[in-house]
Amino acid sequence: MIIKDIAKQEISEIGNILPLKKNNIIPIKINKSIEIVVVPNFGPKNSHQDNVGIILEEKNVLRILSKRYKNVLITEINSEEDLEALVKRKPDLVFSGVKYFFFNNRKIWLNDYLEMFEIPYIASSKAALDNESDKNRAKKIMQKNNIRTADFFITNPGEYLTKSSIPIKFPLFIKPVTGGDSRGVDKNSIVFNFKDFTSKVLDIKTKQNSPSLVETYLAGKEYSVGIFEDSIDGTLRAMPIEIIVKENVDGHCILDFNVKKNDEESVILVSDIVVFDKLSKLAKDSFKALGGKSLGRIDIKMDHLGVPHFIEANLMPGLRKGYFYRSCVLNLDMSYEDMIFSIANTGLSSH
């Protein structure tokens, strides 16, 4: 949803605005309560946590949302009692990147828990996040919905003993079945022979403790498409960007873990309207097929003929100047603050 439209909606909701003060119009804050829910991280700052999908700059989000909404606070959940207290307060919105908590030897998925108490939240449910996080499941969902994705199979070390037993042709691309941020992807992920195939599958099992997803290598351009769900009518806005990666020592352009970690890639707006429309349709169809809600990101790659294929999805995309934020900037000329406001507005309108 375009920010100007959001502003109009919110002004109509709160009625009038205060009189001019020193030639500035000071809007009345909207009478909504928002809790920014976080969990403690006992590792290094911003280190990976399996139960956190979006690492929030919570103090910055607090500063931004407090400009527009009356009651905004940061809530750290350390126990099941903290969670129960949260739902008793029944805020108008929980703004959080937490996937789940692990209390009393069981997982409690935040958004599904909030759903039981009819408390609005941002991002998707457990079912959708499960669909997205397991790349094998995600690709099967694409196939079931006639959404183009590369041929693939799942394997562990020792399952395929000869080149002729491998069900799809070389070259292949190999990555872990689970995990984000291109963990387990490196210059050895593109394989052209059986020896390199067995080596990479073993490497993923050893280092990532994961089976391997092996798929037909797609040699074309790489894209990411941000998705925003409209807060009023539920329509989806697609925001494609092209990701440009320099060739590595082997002459391949691989968006691997180190490239992402070191911000070595660049992104540009998709200016070709035909390509833009193809990417947008595939991304929207993929988002809906996975059961996505509110916001997300769909990664797409072209084959050598320029045909787009679903690669993977992220239904809790990073908000700290990552691909989702950059897709908002390039496509909607949206500032970081506007993005946070838009996410909150969609969440508030979702129930």
From TrEMBL:
Keywords: ATP-binding, Ligase, Nucleotide-binding. GO terms for molecular function: ATP binding; D-alanine-D-alanine ligase activity; metal ion binding. PROSITE patterns: ATP_GRASP (PS50975). Coiled coil: none annotated. The keyword Zinc does not apply. Pfam families: Dala_Dala_lig_C. Belongs to the D-alanine--D-alanine ligase family. This is D-alanine--D-alanine ligase. It comes from Candidatus Pelagibacter giovannonii. The lineage of its organism: Bacteria, Pseudomonadati, Pseudomonadota, Alphaproteobacteria, Candidatus Pelagibacterales.
